């Protein structure tokens, strides 16, 4: 009886290998040859799942963004606790543990690559639009002033949080031991005090 191969599982495994190579050696380390070797496949087997490095990179980018979105929805506080919901959502995007520090390393490599790849750039722009909209909803709810999510004060705060989150993800690459985690947690505390004003 022929062996049944789960092709979706194989694609996920290849993406995980690409992520690990990027974490360890940056974007340049994730060549087709190194991915094949690390995944333990024959040379031509990779093309069955991904026709090019760009297709692997696109799948890796989508995987990291999906994981970020999933983490921001995990263990969400009760809807009536708007401040806790905002804290959870903001913290999900900050490098507050090794997993998120590693994810930041992958995203930074992929952001750089997306400058020359319009498909990846649009994928990330869509992620940013969704992130901003969801963040603005949570900020408006936490402020409790009856403002719509597109109110200037709310959108300004959403922009600030996104800017700080991206900056923190870049900066953490220079401190992969997590030395800046207390600073990021203190930022969230200050943000929530400011929002409550």
Automatic annotation (TrEMBL):
<protein>
    <submittedName>
        <fullName>Regulatory protein, tetR family</fullName>
    </submittedName>
</protein>
<dbReference type="InterPro" id="IPR036271">
    <property type="entry name" value="Tet_transcr_reg_TetR-rel_C_sf"/>
</dbReference>
<dbReference type="GO" id="GO:0003700">
    <property type="term" value="F:DNA-binding transcription factor activity"/>
</dbReference>
<keyword id="KW-0804">Transcription</keyword>
<dbReference type="InterPro" id="IPR001647">
    <property type="entry name" value="HTH_TetR"/>
</dbReference>
<feature type="domain" description="HTH tetR-type">
    <location>
        <begin position="8"/>
        <end position="68"/>
    </location>
</feature>
<dbReference type="Pfam" id="PF13977">
    <property type="entry name" value="TetR_C_6"/>
</dbReference>
<keyword id="KW-0238">DNA-binding</keyword>
<dbReference type="InterPro" id="IPR039538">
    <property type="entry name" value="BetI_C"/>
</dbReference>
<dbReference type="InterPro" id="IPR050109">
    <property type="entry name" value="HTH-type_TetR-like_transc_reg"/>
</dbReference>
<dbReference type="InterPro" id="IPR009057">
    <property type="entry name" value="Homeodomain-like_sf"/>
</dbReference>
<dbReference type="Pfam" id="PF00440">
    <property type="entry name" value="TetR_N"/>
</dbReference>
<dbReference type="GO" id="GO:0000976">
    <property type="term" value="F:transcription cis-regulatory region binding"/>
</dbReference>
<keyword id="KW-0805">Transcription regulation</keyword>
<keyword id="KW-0678">Repressor</keyword>
<feature type="DNA-binding region" description="H-T-H motif">
    <location>
        <begin position="31"/>
        <end position="50"/>
    </location>
</feature>
């Amino acid at each position: 009886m022929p062996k049944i191969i789960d092709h979706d599982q194989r694609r996920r495994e290849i993406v995980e290998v690409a992520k690990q190579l990027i974490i360890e050696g940056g974007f340049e380390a994730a060549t087709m040859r190194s991915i094949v070797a690390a995944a333990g496949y024959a040379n031509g087997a990779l093309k069955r799942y991904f026709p090019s490095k760009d297709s692997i990179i696109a799948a890796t980018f989508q995987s990291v963004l999906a994981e970020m979105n999933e983490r921001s929805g995990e263990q969400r506080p009760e809807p009536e606790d708007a401040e806790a919901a905002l804290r959870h959502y903001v913290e999900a995007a900050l490098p507050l543990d090794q997993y998120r520090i590693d994810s930041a390393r992958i995203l930074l490599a992929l952001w750089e690559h997306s400058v020359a790849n319009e498909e990846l750039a649009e994928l990330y722009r869509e992620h940013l639009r969704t992130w901003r909209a969801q963040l603005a909803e949570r900020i408006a709810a936490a402020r409790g002033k009856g403002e719509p999510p597109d109110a200037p004060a709310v959108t300004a705060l959403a922009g600030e949080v996104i800017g700080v989150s991206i900056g923190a993800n870049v900066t953490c690459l220079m401190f992969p031991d997590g030395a800046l985690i207390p600073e990021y947690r203190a930022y969230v505390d200050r943000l929530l005090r400011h929002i409550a004003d």
